[in-house]
Design brief:
The protein contains 12 helices and 9 strands. Helix 7 (83-93) packs parallel to helix 12. 40% of the residues lie in helices and 17% in strands. The two termini are 16 Å apart. It has helices at 3-12, 22-27, 36-46, 50-53, 56-61, 63-75, 83-93, 108-111, 138-143, 170-181, 196-201, 232-239; strands spanning 16-20, 99-102, 117-119, 122-128, 135-136, 158-161, 185-189, 209-214, 226-229. The chain is α/β, with parallel strands linked by helices. It binds zinc ion (ZN). Residues 129, 131-132, 134, 150, 152-153, 155 line the site of zinc ion.
Length: 241
């Protein structure tokens, strides 16, 4: 295994950035519907596909059904940050990690205590009234039945997550691309180099070492300088102590 080599790279790097992939949130127990089984379960329970239910159109036209689904499936399956996220927090505290970029919306990295996290698709932890701007906690949405409304102006409170069909926030994407372009080491966790996340940002990386840790071999793995197979939550604690 490459543990010692990776450890020495991570410890001597002056600028490491992490792309945190979807395997990490799946292993943490977060709701996942991007596979056939997950999609079918949702469809048989609600009569709509998860993509349909998580779309802007559905949110606007069937708001109550949207929130029933959202509360049950997303807020009901937020997962628990795993050992990989605790290592990332430790690295950040040691000054060995400049930032984390992720598409997950469950706030896992933030909940693990990481600070510089770019959540490309937003987070269920933030909710805002689109009319007056008042902010609400995730618990407020969770404990509210039906459509959650602003206490001040009674508009529907909008979870600050990116729905299907919505553009990502430009400034956020630019910030993430800048972070990657300045990195000396890029640590890709829990996804292939062909995943949407890596596909979006790999092109900005001009650094020296691309380290990839994920579970199953993939034909694009050879693009990495160093590769470790295994779940990030199992591997990372052995590498960085
Ligand atoms: Zn309001």
């Amino acid at each position: 295994m490459n543990y010692e080599r990776i450890q020495s790279i991570l410890k001597s790097s002056r600028n490491t950035v992490c792309l945190l992939g979807v395997e990490s949130s799946m292993d943490s127990g977060c709701f996942y519907y991007h596979d056939a089984d997950g999609a079918m379960d949702v469809e048989s329970e609600y009569g709509y596909s998860p993509e349909e239910m998580f779309s802007t159109i559905f949110y606007n036209t069937r708001t109550k059904e949207f929130f029933d689904f959202y509360r049950d499936k997303l807020l009901g399956h937020m997962g628990t940050p795993g050992a990989d996220l605790k290592v990332l927090r430790q690295m950040e505290q040691d000054g060995k990690l400049n930032g984390i970029i992720t598409r997950e919306v469950f706030g896992l990295a933030k909940r693990a205590g990481c600070e510089n996290v770019i959540e490309l698709h937003g987070t269920v932890l933030k909710n805002r009234c689109p009319h007056c701007g008042k902010e609400y906690t995730m618990e407020y949405i969770k404990n509210h039945s039906g459509v959650p409304q602003c206490e001040v102006c009674h508009a529907t409170i909008r979870p600050q997550v990116c729905l299907v069909g919505e553009m990502l926030d430009n400034a956020t994407v630019t910030r993430a691309a800048d972070l990657v372009s300045q990195a000396e080491v890029l640590l890709v966790l829990g996804c292939t180099l062909k995943s949407s996340l890596a596909g979006q940002f790999l092109k900005y990386f001009n650094g020296e070492q691309l380290i990839l840790i994920h579970e199953n071999e993939h034909y694009t793995d050879e693009k990495a300088d160093i590769i470790c197979y295994g779940k990030p939550r199992d591997v990372l604690p052995k590498i960085y102590q």
